[in-house]
Structures are given as structure tokens and as C-alpha cells.
Amino acid sequence: MDEFEIGEFTYRAGKMDAMTQFQVTRKLAPVLASFKDVDNDTGDFIPVAEAIAKLDDAVVEYVIACCLAVVSRKQLNGAGWAAIWDGRAKRPMFEDIDMSIMLNIVRRVLQGNIGSFSSALR
User: Fold this and answer.
1) Residue 66: which residues within 8 A CB-CB, separation 6 or more?
2) How many domains does the chain have?
3) Residue 122 pLDDT greater than 60, yes or no
4) Distance between CA atoms of residues 13 and 3, nearest Å
5) Nearest-CA neighbor of 12 among 89, 75, 93?
């Protein structure tokens, strides 16, 4: 389990099962391939942004849902850990998880689950 902090909260990212890892990697293949066109000298990530923009909404929602489904958040009141994703409602369980936090969490989960397969996430 990978623990990390974002703001005042500690999150714990678990592992996706192998089939989910495969499906997420397959769906992200165009984005992962776009990293070869990144100019590391200038920090130009436009090719990656363009590849992400071309992904179908259903693909993006699938990847985000798979990532958030394996994450829990440490409760401030000492009540343990709580899942952060409501699969039925297809939304975060906590109102304070905005787009920026969500994308940070997704990045951490992808690093831990498909990062060894794709050096683009490093």
C-alpha cells in the first residue's frame, strides 16, 4: 500500500487486480505513447495534453473510477480509513475532493499500478 498526503489528508492507494491494470494500461496506450513526443528540455507536455483530450469520455471515466476505487482516506477523527469512491454514484465520497486532488490521486495510483510497465509515468 502506498500512503501519501494531499493537503490535510492521508490517502492509501491499493493495488488494482491484474486484469484491471491491463485494461487501464490498454485504454491509456495513446496517452502513454505521446510521452515520446515530450520535449524534456522545455517541459512541453502539449503532446500528452492533446492525447488526453482525444480520449473518449467513457475511457476517462473508466480510468478515473478504477484508480479511485482502490483508494481510502484516513479519517481525522481516528475512525480508521474510508473509501473515497462511490461506484454507484460515480463520484468521490468526500465533497472536498476537487479536480486537482482527484487528478493527483489518479496519478499516484497509476504510478503504483502501471508505472513499472510504463516509464512515461515516472
Assistant:
1) 16, 20, 23, 24
2) 1
3) no
4) 6
5) 75
